[in-house]
Amino acid sequence: MEGELERKPHMRRGTNFIVEENVDTIQWPHECAVCGGPVEATDSLELKKTFKALGKIQVKVAGIPYCQVCLPKIHRGKMLDKVVYVVAFVLGIPIGLLLTTAVARQPGTTYVCCGLLMAVGLVIGYGLSWLIIKFPVRLLFKKYFASPVDAWLIEEKKSDGKNGMSVVISIPNKNYADKFAQLNGV
C-alpha cells in the first residue's frame, strides 16, 4: 500500500477546543475569525510552558486568519490587557504595603501574614485596574477592540489514558467556532 496516511488533529470540544495531537495540522476556515470578512492577514501564537513531567514545551499555533480591519483591533486588545496588568501592580503594591503596615503595628504579626496581605493588595489592584480601565474602555470604545483567538498549554490525561500536553484554543466568535469545528471534524 503506497498511500500516505492523512494526519488530522486529534481534538475535542468543550467550552474551548482541546487539541491533543497534531496541532500543526489544524485547519482554519478561510474568513476573518472576528467578523467573518475576507482573509487579508494571518497571526500566530507562540506558546511556551514548563511542565514537571514533560519539561519545557514550545508550540506554535499558526495561520489564524484576520482581515486588515480586525488585526489592529486584536493588537489593541492585547495591549489593553498588558496595561491592566501594569496598572494592577502600580495600584496593588501600595495597597499591599498599606495593608501590611496597618497589620504590622499589632504585636505577633508574622512575615507570612505580610506576604498574604501583599497578595491581597495585588488582587485588589487588579480588580480596581479592571474596573477603571478594561471595563469602561472596552464598553465605551468597543469598535476599537476585538477579542482574539487565544491558546494556552495544559498538562492532562489524554483520551488514551496517558499523561501529556494539550493545546486549548479559545475562539470568541461562536459562528466561526462552529465552522472551525466542522472543518476539523470535531
Give structural notes:
The strands form two sheets. The chain has a four-stranded antiparallel sheet with strand order 1-2-6-5, with no helix packed on it. It has helices at 70-104, 111-140, 174-183, and strands at residues 10-13, 17-21, 41-51, 55-66, 150-157, 163-170. Helix 1 packs antiparallel against helix 2. It has 186 residues and is α+β, with helices and mostly antiparallel strands. Helices cover 40% and strands 26% of the residues. The chain starts with 9 loop residues before the first strand and ends with a helix.
**Treating each run of at least 4 consecutive H or I residues as one helix, how many helices?**
3
Write down the overall geometry: flat
* Succession of helices and strands: EEEEHHEEH
* Main beta-sheet strand count, sense and barrel state: 4 strands, antiparallel
User: What is the beta-strand fraction?
Assistant: 25-35%
Q: On the 0-100 scale, what is the average pLDDT?
A: 82
Number of domain units: 2
The low-confidence parts are none
Taking all Cα atoms into account, the compactness measure Rg is 22 Å
First and last CA, distance: 28 Å
Q: Please provide the count of β strands.
A: 6
Q: Quickly give the structural class.
A: alpha+beta
Give the spatial strand order of the biggest sheet: 1-2-6-5
The percent of residues in helical segments reads 40-55%
Question: What characteristics describe this protein?
Answer:
186 residues, alpha+beta, four-stranded antiparallel β-sheet, two-stranded antiparallel ribbon, 26% strand, 2 domains, 6 strands
